[in-house]
Design goal:
single chain; mainly beta; 2 domains; Fe-S_cluster_assembly_SufBD
Length: 389
């Protein structure tokens, strides 16, 4: 089913949702807390957990100490990596945990790892972190602080095998420009639940790019909020699910400050029996957020029978004084006409399929801005496509 909404100003406050006939609380009313006891263990009947196979991830809801993932880092000059106390993290401006897995990660992680980019620093190389699982239960808690008018790219890669919950907070200073790239290339047995929060400063620019190509279950919640007017947030995503994999990406953009912008664009491909992807995009425009301009888009390409993609865009608007708001969602099968067109020009079927899928993803991968990451991901997508032959 395709859902389309035009990018026009809303005439009045309203809620626009594919679940419009199902009573549900406003996103502004959902629980956030530092206390694990404020989040019951999910049963799967809750709105925010109804797509997730919760029976397979119960270990990540338990208050059980875990290890840290093995970490390798490449840090440009001027950037520091340290640890801080939980109290200092709570006073950093980072949002509170918003679900059971995130609060457990914050509570059970061995420490809070902090990456500091000083004010007015312009990095010419990305900050690179490689986190590798070794089959154990693990918790991660990371805070990225980007100073005023700084410019930086942070690349965070996950691989190996683990049962992993994480909380990642990115606090972007006024006038700063930051890109965070998170790549999930887990083993097929890995479990990964993550909450990624981005706080956009006054007149700052922030991009969050999520790439998920592996893992038995991967569920990422990406939340954006604004610390002042004039901020811009862009969320891009690429995911490719194979047989038996569950990949879930949830976005929440909370427009409270006036004259801010957001753009969300995610694309996914699925192949194989029981491959399942979920994309949920929530945008809240509060009464104080006059002049907001927002749009969200999700596209899914189903390559084989037996795969399922769920796509749920939502707009919740409390003021009519906005520049624009809209969403679009579509899920479809491989376009045989495109294959025929390419084959008619002498291209064999396997190569034609690769070209079509590569083109589907290239518009997002090409905007990552880190050449070696872009090349690596396109090669990984090619390897995923070998399973369709």
């Amino acid at each position: 089913m395709s859902l389309l909404a035009q990018k026009n100003p809303a005439p009045e406050a309203h809620t626009d949702s594919v679940a419009a006939f199902v009573p549900d609380q406003s996103r502004a009313e959902r629980t956030t807390s530092y206390a694990v006891s404020d989040f019951p263990v999910p049963s799967g009947r809750e709105e925010e957990w109804r797509f997730t196979p919760v029976d397979r991830i119960r270990a990540l809801f338990a208050e059980t100490p875990g290890s840290a993932l093995r970490r390798e880092e490449s840090v440009p000059d001027g950037v520091t990596v340290s640890t801080v106390s939980t109290a200092e993290w709570q006073g950093s401006g980072a949002p509170k945990p918003a679900d059971r897995a995130a609060v457990v990660a914050a509570d059970q992680a061995e420490s809070v790892t902090v990456i500091d980019v000083p004010a007015e620093t312009e990095l010419t190389e990305p900050v690179r972190l490689l986190l590798t699982g070794e089959g154990a239960l693990a918790h991660g808690h990371t805070l990225v602080r980007v100073g005023n008018f700084a410019k930086a790219t942070i690349v965070l890669r996950h691989e190996g095998d683990a049962q992993y919950s994480e909380l990642l907070s990115v606090v972007v200073g006024d006038g700063a420009d930051v890109t965070v790239v998170t790549v999930q290339e887990w083993a097929d047995t890995a479990l990964h639940l993550g909450q990624h929060d981005v706080v956009v400063g006054r007149d700052a620019k922030a991009r969050h790019i999520a790439v998920t190509l592996g893992g038995g279950i991967v569920r990422l919640n990406t939340n954006a909020s604004y610390a002042g007017p004039g901020g811009s947030f862009e969320a891009l995503g690429v995911y490719f699910a194979d047989s038996g994999q569950h990949q879930e990406h949830r976005l929440f953009v909370d427009h409270e400050a006036p004259h801010c912008r957001s753009n969300v664009e995610y694309k996914g491909a699925l192949q194989g029996d029981s491959a399942h992807t979920v994309w949920v995009g929530d945008v809240l425009i509060r009464a104080s957020a006059e002049g907001t301009d927002t749009y969200e888009l999700n596209r899914n390409l189903i390559l084989t029978d037996g795969a399922r993609a769920d796509s749920v865009p939502n707009l919740e608007i409390e003021t009519g004084e906005i520049a624009g708001a809209g969403h679009a969602s579509a899920t479809g099968r491989f376009d045989d006409q495109q294959l025929f067109y390419l084959q008619a020009r002498g291209i064999d079927e396997d190569t034609a399929r690769r070209l079509v899928v590569r083109g589907f993803f290239a518009s997002i991968v090409g905007r990552i801005g880190v050449p070696e990451v872009e090349e690596h991901l396109m090669a990984a997508i090619d390897r995923e496509l070998e399973g369709t032959e």
